[in-house]
Design brief:
Elements lengths: L1 E9 L18 E2 L7 H20 L5 H8 L3 E11 L10 E4 L4 E5 L5 E9 L12 H4 L3 E4 L4 E2 L5 E3 H8 L5 E2 L8 E9 L6 E12 L2 E7 L2 E15 L11 E3 L4 E7 L17 E6 L14 E4 L5 E4 L8 E7 L4 E3 L2 E2 L4 E2 L3 E3 L5 E6 L7 H7 L15 E6 L9
Length: about 400
């Protein structure tokens, strides 16, 4: 096995179709996810590995052999990248991160857009859950640090904004919208016998455009391009990285392959420091066995009851104080070997935020935060699921060790 780090740059947009079928209330319209899932990217890498192996050794793989042997292709890191078109290489400054759920974009009384925090505090109204879970009801509730009308959030933040947020920077002016724009492609059906278009058989497909205008200055356009940064385990039976374009997403749209430095995935300088409370932001979706509740966390009786468990890279037990989790992702796909749908999986979306304190009241050290950077949490480690970004958090004093 060898480690391979490279960027995938879609050249004609990318369509990663969501779960809605073609025959819905909007007949003939296909919707794309705003960003491809890690499983989609790993599937493309497994397909590319098989093609490389067959080309190198002059063999033909059966579907069953292909599925079995390509399982060794593991997606270890998965991040978004953005740079100005024409820049020679990607750096850590080009990294883009999912917007954390504890950030709210608001329009204040002066008409200015700002970012404010959701800070968890003890107490609050009871929730409507599927069961009577007193430990869940005892979790702290988030409260906004400032007033204002909530506005829609972008999909990503740039590196500098995310590092400042994780470091505990105060509320600030809102950054620019950081979302690749979509477009709609119109297609028509072709009659097999006449090789001409069929009447009334148009359909459209939503495509995420990975090239866009960054700025216009005196009639001069500055373009930017988005990419997928991946680090994967690449079996040695295929030589080197994928050669030539790689098919990705719906209709296997072509993506260029560009080598990356492994330092692109390390923690930023100056982020990690000792902190009494820990904030974990999901950089990729997470798969937990009990939905939103992390694995290895159990209810511990007390006044109030609480969830106690362990985190990757941290030896001491921790207490879950709060969880800001958006709606779950329902993920399925098509099994190309068995020709049937795969079982649906339920994920916690990227951007969800969890807040912790150590059970004994000690601080989280700078070394522990550094070890947590992009550590895998929960299931799906081979698919880069559950990778986390650690940040500082200052809980209320009376909550420590409670």
């Amino acid at each position: 096995m060898s480690d391979a780090c490279f960027a995938l740059l879609p050249r004609d947009g990318l369509s990663a179709k969501d779960g809605r079928g073609w025959y819905t209330s909007e007949v003939g319209r296909g919707y794309s996810l705003p960003w491809p899932l890690p499983t989609t990217v790993r599937g493309a890498l497994r397909a590319a590995w098989g093609h490389e192996l067959m080309a190198d050794q002059g063999i033909t793989l059966s579907p069953e052999t292909w599925e079995h042997d390509s399982a060794r292709v593991e997606l270890r890191r998965f991040i978004a990248l953005r740079r100005a078109l024409g820049e020679p290489a990607f750096t850590r400054a080009h990294r883009m991160w999912p917007v954390p759920a504890d950030a709210v974009r608001v329009l204040d009384e002066a008409g200015t857009e700002r970012l404010v925090r959701l800070e968890p505090h003890p107490g609050g109204a009871a929730t409507l859950g599927p069961d009577e879970d007193d430990a869940r009801e005892a979790l702290w509730h988030p409260r906004r640090s400032a007033r204002g009308k909530p506005l829609a959030q972008p999909l990503f933040w740039p590196e500098a904004t995310m590092v400042a947020w994780l470091s505990g920077a105060p509320d600030s002016l809102v950054p620019e919208r950081e979302t690749p724009p979509p477009r709609t492609d119109i297609h028509l059906a072709i009659d097999v016998e006449t090789q001409a278009s069929q009447d009334s058989m148009l359909h459209s497909r939503e495509v995420v455009e990975w090239l866009r205008v960054q700025s216009r200055d005196a009639g001069r356009l500055t373009l930017e391009e988005w990419a997928l940064g991946v680090s994967c385990a690449w079996p040695d039976s295929a030589k080197g990285l994928p050669h030539g374009p790689l098919g990705l997403g719906g209709r296997r749209r072509l993506s260029d392959v560009e080598r990356l430095d492994s330092n692109l995935f390390v923690a930023p300088d100056g982020l990690t420091r000792a902190t009494r409370g820990l904030r974990l932001v999901l950089a990729t979706p997470a798969e937990f066995q009990r939905g939103w509740l992390p694995d290895d966390f159990e209810r511990v009786a007390g006044a109030p009851p609480r969830y106690v468990g362990r985190l990757p890279c941290i030896d001491a037990p921790v207490v879950l104080r709060a969880a800001l989790v958006p709606r779950p992702l329902e993920v399925s796909g098509w099994d190309m070997v068995r020709r049937q749908p795969r079982a649906t999986r339920r994920w916690v979306p990227a951007g969800a935020v969890y807040f912790f304190e150590k059970l004994g009241g000690e601080d989280f050290t700078a070394d522990e935060l550094c070890e947590l950077w992009l550590a895998s949490w929960g299931g799906g480690h081979a698919e880069a699921l559950g990778q986390v970004l650690p940040g500082v958090w200052q809980p209320p004093r009376h909550g420590q060790g409670a």
